[in-house]
User: Fold this.
Amino acid sequence: DAKTTQPTSMDCAEGRAANLPCNHSTISGNEYVYWYRQIHSQGPQYIIHGLKNNETNEMASLIITEDRKSSTLILPHATLRDTAVYYCIVRVPRDYGQNFVFGPGTRLSVLP
Amino acid sequence: KAGVTQTPRYLIKTRGQQVTLSCSPISGHRSVSWYQQTPGQGLQFLFEYFSETQRNKGNFPGRFSGRQFSNSRSEMNVSTLELGDSALYLCASSLGDGRAETQYFGPGTRLLVL
Assistant:
């Protein structure tokens, strides 16, 4: 079973920041938080991951709360091309038994 | 660096037939994982191969099998196709060395079983 809960859907205005929350209250100390997105009928695209510190790359920022029970993915200036299903996953890197368990994700609609 | 490639992209088969899908991982990646995605069940893990050995397996019947070659390319096979096998089949590759195991996905093969 997925270890995360996310809102089913969200809307965001084009050009505004999109903030996608994820709850992972049962996360273990060595589990990373990963974010992927999937644009309709394409393969999931890796966005970002982190353990406890906030992370930023060219696509997004990941903010993890101090207790690590939740996180937020931030797309700073959403465009129409960011419309996709966003998946938040927790995973232990060295635990090959788990792999990535995808939940239903959040369907983000960026509106013009 | 080229991404993960999957062939064919689209496939139509009839019930009872078998099908073989192919995946070429990112150069240098030794781990290949396969997933099935359907509207009803979402993304589900099938199996993972590393160094030509199945390292992990999801909860799918034995009709689903795979293999990996010495160049890390992988194939998955589904025998005795059923209507419910219609899905997007995704392949993902990673280094497989146990560090931050980011998986990179291919575009998928869409299989339709009639």
